[in-house]
Predict the structure.
Amino acid sequence: METADLGKLLKENSYPGRGIVIGRSEDGSKAVTAYFIMGRSVNSRNRVFTATEDGIKTEAFDPSKLTDPHLIIYSPVRVLGNKTIVTNGDQTDTIYEGMDKQMTFEQSLRCREFEDDAPNYTPRISGIMHVEGGTYNFAMSILKSADGDPSSCERHTFTYSNPKAGVGRFLHTYMGDGNPLPSFEGEPEKVAISGDIDTFTANVWESLNEDNKVSLFVRFIDIATGEADTRIVNKNV
């Protein structure tokens, strides 16, 4: 698979929806993740990321404009020991609780399906990063309807051991804008990761559609020490 330019992919897609990037920094020393949210409705756009004790959560920027918290208020990122969980919904908590009970990433998601937002049936996308003792691996998952048929759920898990420097995988909810929104297809896209955390953050944020982007989270984790450096960017400030 050809390694794509992440910024170019984002610029060419006005509505990838929510997206997760996981990979390794250009110099090989950092485990990298990014998570962004976008919105077309007033309710979806009325959000910000805020830091929590073990990750981040979404909150209403203007609580008076919040009409339906269902599917838009959740914790996208949580840390469980040496594992960092990144998802596009409340399945973050499902994975956290399952893995805390010694279940695997895949087993933890067995009780979940795509979102109940007919007619889109938005996929649930998730990632898990494991950094320990100078080693790094990650996995990604997508739970999606079978070509828009809610009676069937397709479950795909992708695992990456000792990922290569400067390379990441990009999984997003939609192939582009539409009505209904077309679900992501195929395996996570292979993308280049370049620069330090600030360069990478700026590239992703500036490449997202100006009208639809809402918030961005980026974290670089030192593979040798486990120390994390984080950036949060909100359109609503």
Summary: The chain is about 15% helix and 40% strand. The longest helix spans residues 197-207.
